[in-house]
Amino acid sequence: MSLFFKSERKFPNRHRIFVGSCDENYNYYYNKTFSSAVKLIVCSQIDLCKEPNWLPSDAQGFYIFRCNDVRSLNDISVFQDVTDLWHSTIRRCDGLEFVVSSSYLMPFQNLESLYLCYLNNLNAVFGEVGAVAKSAPLPAGTFSSLQKIKVERCDKIKKLLPLRLLRYLQNLQTIKVDGCDQMEEIIWSEYEEGGEKALEKLTLPKLEKLLLMGLPALKSIYSGSSTVLICDSIKRVEISFCDEIESVFWSGFNPLPTLEYLKLQCLWNLKSVFDEEALGLSALPTAFFSLKTIDVGKCPKLKKVFSSGWLLGYFQSLETIVVDFCNQMEELISSSTYEEKEALEKITLPNLQWLKLSQLPKLKSICSSSNALIFDSIKTLAIYKCKKLKRIPLHLSSLDNGQPPSLKQIQVGTKEDWESLEWDQSNAKDVLLPSVNFHPMGLIQCKGCPPTFC
């Protein structure tokens, strides 16, 4: 074992203690994770359960690398005395089966960020999966300061956060899970199968980001039916390369009035996004009130984005819609009932500025009903390789009033594509022709468009 101490000249009170050999990727993770930690301990390739009895108990950051004797953090005696730990990263510790043992739980009340990377045998966050983990009570305040949890390349873990832990995660802001091959569910209830009565409502009041990537076994974010999960501060949801997921919003869905950005990419079995029946939105008038961007791509089984035009009343802040490479997409907005066709004369998105439809070979219509789409703020329309799309039901009020339209950029593949499009307003083609750009080799980045648009 080797040991050296390093202090920083600019910050004399900030120091790092290295125990064992240095990880080649340490500087990357230090700058990314531990830059705010004043007192950091780096343990690399040592028998951590035996060595650290003498390490300082006032450490604020722990970086643990290839310490394969550790089965849980409870095995490390120094953690029993640490009271001011802010950050912890654990990488490539093949012996780690769970973060905290159910037999002896330490609350880690000051921990703000927890990063778990390349842990090949990690089974659960708390204890063994089974009766012991279900029955063991959690100490009050467990992870009560936790703001970020990131789990990357942990191939055995199937479920991340137990429902009973959520009552303590009142400061959690970010959940990121990436490249975990067996992950089936992000939030799970231990009580559903055991017959015990679950809580009626649980809240993550500060959760802002949910990022899920490369989870081929993921079936749901949360599948509990007897507990409503409330995330009324979430702003960003990104889900990509999750092969099994069929719908985005869970059965215990509650309004997401602060959601601003939704990105869905490479979801091979996704069948619905905003479905009227599944969401039950009639009683949720502010469900997606703040949503500004919808970015959907490479979802080959998705046939529509909105199950009805009536739903668009919940999306009055929407600014950007991008849908591309969805081979089965038939319509952007569906119209499923006769009553809706009769009652709804206009569909309005007052703030929509950018609409892109690209590589959708089966797209027949933007909206299947005969109702007009009022997008009076639209600036850019991009349509590329949508051979079956003919009718453009956009109604630009400015054309009726003889005013210059807000639509300044139109991107299509070829001149033939433009000529095949039919507009509801008879003068639209002539007025908008100067704004048309042809891009037979593919769409380009539009001036003033958001980065996700092109």
Number of strands: 32
Q: What's the total helix number?
A: 7
Question: Helices and strands: which structural class?
Answer: mainly beta
Quaternary form: single chain
Tell me, briefly, the overall form.
elongated
How can the largest sheet be summarized? 17 strands, mixed
N-to-C span: 53 Å
Helix content: under 10%
- What is the residue-averaged pLDDT? 82
Topology record:
Blueprint: E1 3-7, E2 15-20, H1 26-34, E3 39-44, E4 61-65, E5 87-91, E6 98-100, E7 113-117, E8 124-126, H2 131-135, E9 148-152, E10 159-162, E11 174-178, E12 185-188, E13 201-203, E14 209-213, E15 220-222, E16 228-230, E17 236-240, E18 261-265, H3 276-279, E19 293-297, E20 304-306, E21 320-324, E22 331-333, H4 338-343, E23 346-348, E24 354-358, E25 365-367, E26 372-374, E27 380-384, E28 391-392, E29 394-395, H5 397-401, E30 409-412, H6 415-420, E31 422-423, H7 428-432, E32 436-438
Parallel strand pairs: 2-3, 3-4, 4-5, 5-7, 6-8, 7-9, 9-11, 10-12, 11-14, 12-15, 13-16, 14-17, 17-18, 18-19, 19-21, 20-22, 21-24, 22-25, 23-26, 24-27, 26-29, 27-30, 28-31, 30-32
Antiparallel strand pairs: 1-2
